[in-house]
Amino acid sequence: MNRKRPSAWQQYKTLLKKDLQREFRTKEMVTSMGIYAILVLIIFGASLGQSATADTIVKISGGLLWVLIVFTGLLGLNRSFSYEKEQSCLEGILLVPMDRSVIYLAKATSNLVFLLAVEVIAIPLYYFFFLTASAPSETFLYMLIPLFVGTVGISGVGTILSTITVNTRGRDVILAVLLIPLIFPLLYAGVSATGAMIVGADGCWDTFTVSLALAAGYDVVMLLVSWVLYDYVVSA
Question: d(Cα 223, Cα 181) in Å, to the nearest integer?
């Protein structure tokens, strides 16, 4: 009797469920990313606590938050395919007759979920330690929008680069060397939009709108390119 082939949506849910269940069971990736984020915050505190004023910290907070996200994300992306490599799971998945782009979408989604989970903890801690000395601007909460858009882009681009570097020596360094230059337009736009909302100065909405549009456009283009190329990348 012929069995009906699972749809792409069912395959996506199965792969995503696999990643989430493994992480909920071991908590390896989220725990390591969370600890790393806290260590970065400690370094920020040691660097800024003695000399920077409250106004200065507010002005550079957009950049500091993105430093926190990018380097924490790099740690998670380096580990995203480690289990598949160690247990040879990726080879088994590739034997299944399925669209390879489904693998990309599932892995990118799981990376996004893990990074957002760490941000939910790290961003309030950053606010508590560095921004409570000054009153928040009226536009402060809008800075979550560019942070989310940027996290989507980092997760999407980082997933395909993590696939490329998983079998290379020194993949931790190689991934950083590839990722940071490639996401520079996203970082530039994200820092600008985030900083504008934190500071809330005159003209902040113009800066926010233009920068957010650039970040969203980058996400659309790069995610589509990654989705199209993933079949070639994972099969190479």
Answer: 16
How far does Cα 167 stand from its chain's mean position? 21
3-class DSSP state for residue 225?
Answer: helix
pLDDT single digits (tens) 176-197: 999 999 999 999 999 999 999 9
Count of CB atoms within 10 A of residue 137's CB? 17
pLDDT digit string, tens, across residues 4-17: 777 888 889 988 99
Please name the residues in contact with 14: beta carbons below 8 A apart, sequence gap of 6 or more.
6
With vertex at residue 143, the alpha carbon angle to CA 133 and CA 44, rounded to the nearest 5 degrees, is 50
pLDDT at 144: 95
Return the closest-CA partner of residue 47 out of 34, 35, 60, 36: 60
pTM for the whole structure:
0.92
| pLDDT of 127 higher than 50 | yes
Task: Map tokens 């233009």 to a residue.
Answer: 210
Q: Is the Cβ–Cβ distance between 191 and 147 less than 8 Å?
A: no
The single residue listed with the structure tokens 């480690």 is 82
- Residue 99, amino acid: D
Whether the CB-CB separation of 61 and 198 falls below 8 Å is answered with yes
Mean pLDDT of 208-223: 96
Contact 44, 64 (CB under 8 A): yes
Distance CA 58, CA 155 (A): 27
Q: Tell me the C-alpha distance between 182 and 203, whole Å.
A: 29
Q: Cβ atoms within 10 A of the Cβ of 33, count? A: 25
